[in-house]
Specification:
Structural class: mainly beta
Shape: elongated
Helix content: 10-25%
Largest sheet: 9 strands, antiparallel
Distance between the termini: 63 Å
């Protein structure tokens, strides 16, 4: 009985795999980084022409491929590099047919129907505009963003993935750069670059996450495809959408560009929430501020031949320098005025004038109260904050022979952002509590595309990548109490005052590795064309290692329900008070006025 069940299960599994391969094979003949051309060759009366020779030539690299039409007059070219091709068709007894500027886009099959005239006639079709390819041969919902869109459409910040919002059923997911497909969380998407997995497993976002400017330069991208529904299992591992990006390559002609983008908020309005509290002789004044925000983005690309028709190179450099000081503010702009000076300065144990019986003073001096208020005020205002990142991407395409194409690319990102972990225009964190942020990303993608026979193609891919993200607390301001030693140096605890702000070493530090993620990916896909059907078989091995080192609240934390309790504890930290001094609320004694502690 066990043997029969096992055999039946194997047969059912094999049948399911065969049906799946058959179902997707009829419509998908290209990989995640290539496209295709297909069509039918007929004569002037519409009868099919078998055994005709169809030749395509990549106009950029001069690479050619030949194929013979089947008994139904059909032909199909698979796994073509995105680019512009010319197509030539010849058959005995018929005139030659030529079509120029055939556009091949990633993930799409371009349909070209060929009608041959009699010998002595000439048919030449020239397409002068690169119109988008309309998908009429597969059930997937996909949109291609090509060079025209990438180069001509305006974009804020040059984050190319924002072009995804041009496609149907997409909206921003929050304000942090994520994108939702069909209302599904932006954490459930899949991103690929040159066929390699471009996701970070730990945070479930794009590699490098969305807080950096971008991990791939806009100038290095040739095009990308946005798959929103019904896409092939080859793209998979996504409940939302798939963004499939292909980088540029060199050709037989040298090409390149230079760019610089300059942005300055001098030409814009002040943020209506940007205020600072000025304290002068105990009198609080609220003034509006407009910190500078200056951004330079510059770089360039160059590509061309190393050996004509054989070996090509492409190189992209992209740098961003942004100066955007942060602004620390109180959550309640009148926070300092909530200090109960009468309660604090009435002699210890005496009835506070004008208060209900039993409300006794704490015995602080007016100078001690004003000194603490001045310290709190010093935690607010502008603080230096920058975001500097460098990106470069070299790429080599080697046409080993007529049957093998080898491609390798390396993308390197280094992003440093002093005080840049908090990127908002205003924050209720102290001026030295924003956190220094760092992102280092390296990814190496290699691909070997081989023509085994006229109807069997193989594509092997390898990727190594590392995404190392870390953040450290900043050096304390004068007056902040030092209580612990961390990897970043002596630090103060995290102190949160309700209605005011949080300062010191906030609870999310130190982030020594968050994460340090390494990925090895091996994938191989075989495409087999037989008659009108195309079958695809493959395997994908994706090994990820995450190293996390983030000891939260390692310097301790204190929560104060009001400013008065903080003043009592802070004065006691500077000059010890009488041990009988009560807190402003409750029955606790001095030194323990916080409502919550984590030591």
């Amino acid at each position: 009985m066990t043997k029969n069940i096992f055999s039946s299960s194997i047969r059912f599994f094999m049948l399911a795999v065969f049906c799946l391969a058959l179902g997707i094979g009829q419509t998908f003949a290209q990989s995640t980084v290539t496209g295709g051309i297909r069509g039918t060759v007929t004569d002037a009366q519409g009868a099919v022409v078998p055994n005709a020779t169809v030749t395509i030539t990549n106009t950029g690299t001069n690479q050619t491929q030949d194929i013979t039409t089947d008994e139904d007059g059909g032909y199909r070219f698979s796994n073509l590099q995105p680019g512009v091709y010319s197509l030539k068709t010849t058959a005995s007894g018929f005139a030659q047919f030529t079509q120029e500027r055939v556009v091949v886009e990633v993930g799409q099959v371009t349909p070209i129907e060929v009608q041959l005239g009699l010998t002595g006639q000439t048919a030449n079709v020239e397409v002068t505009a690169e119109a988008p390819v309309i998908n009429t041969n597969s059930q997937d919902f996909a949109t291609n963003i090509n060079q025209t869109s990438i180069n001509e459409l305006p974009i804020n910040g040059r984050r190319a993935s924002n072009f995804v919002l041009l496609t149907p059923a997409t909206v921003p997911d929050g304000t942090f750069g994520l994108i939702s497909f069909r209302g599904i969380s932006g954490l459930l998407n899949n991103s690929t670059v040159d066929g390699g997995d471009n996701n970070q497993a730990f945070q479930s976002e794009e590699r490098g996450r969305t807080r950096i400017g971008y991990v791939i330069s806009q100038s290095a991208i040739r095009e990308f495809q946005v798959n929103t529904s019904n896409y092939s299992a080859e793209y998979g591992r996504s409940a939302g959408g798939v963004v499939n990006t292909v980088t540029k390559s060199g050709t037989n002609e040298f090409h390149g560009d230079l760019f610089e983008y300059y942005r300055n908020n001098r030409f814009g309005a002040r943020n209506p929430l940007a205020f600072q509290t000025i304290l002068n002789n105990g009198v609080q004044t609220i003034v509006g501020l407009k910190p500078v925000d200056v951004r330079h983005q510059f770089g360039g690309t160059i590509g061309g031949p190393i050996i004509k028709d054989k070996l090509f190179f492409f190189f992209s450099y992209d740098q961003q320098k942004r100066n955007f000081p942060g602004l620390a503010i109180f959550s309640n702009l009148n926070f300092l005025n909530t200090a109960d000076t009468l309660l604090l300065t009435t002699p210890l144990g005496q009835q506070v004038p004008g208060r209900p019986p039993g409300v006794l003073g704490r015995g602080l001096t007016a100078a001690q109260v004003n000194s603490t208020l001045t310290f709190l005020n010093s935690l607010t205002g502008e603080t230096p904050r920058r975001q500097d990142q460098k990106l470069f991407l070299p790429k080599i395409d080697w046409q080993v022979n007529n049957n093998n194409l080898f491609t390798v690319s390396y993308n390197r990102l280094r992003a440093d952002s002093p005080a840049g972990l908090q990127t908002q225009a205003t924050n209720t964190f102290g001026r030295r509590s924003f956190g220094d942020d760092f992102v280092d990303v390296d990814s190496l993608n290699a691909r070997l595309q081989s023509t085994i026979s006229t109807n069997i193609l193989n594509e092997a891919r390898f990727q190594y990548s590392r995404d190392n993200e870390y953040a450290f607390s900043q050096e304390p301001l004068p007056g902040e109490p030092l209580t612990a030693m961390t990897v970043a140096g002596p630090r103060s605890p995290s102190i949160n005052i309700t209605g005011g702000l949080t300062f010191g070493t906030t609870a999310n530090f130190e982030r020594v590795k968050f994460p340090d993620e390494t990925r090895y990916q091996l994938a191989d896909t075989v495409t087999w064309t037989r008659g009108r059907h195309t079958f695809k078989f493959g395997a994908d091995f994706n090994h990820i290692t995450d190293d996390i080192e983030n000891l939260r609240s390692q310097t301790g934390s204190y929560l104060y329900p009001n400013i008065n309790d903080f003043i009592i504890d802070y004065v006691n930290y500077q000059t010890p008070l009488a041990t009988t001094t009560p807190c402003a609320t409750g029955n606790l004694r001095v030194g323990r006025c916080s409502s919550g502690t984590n030591l």
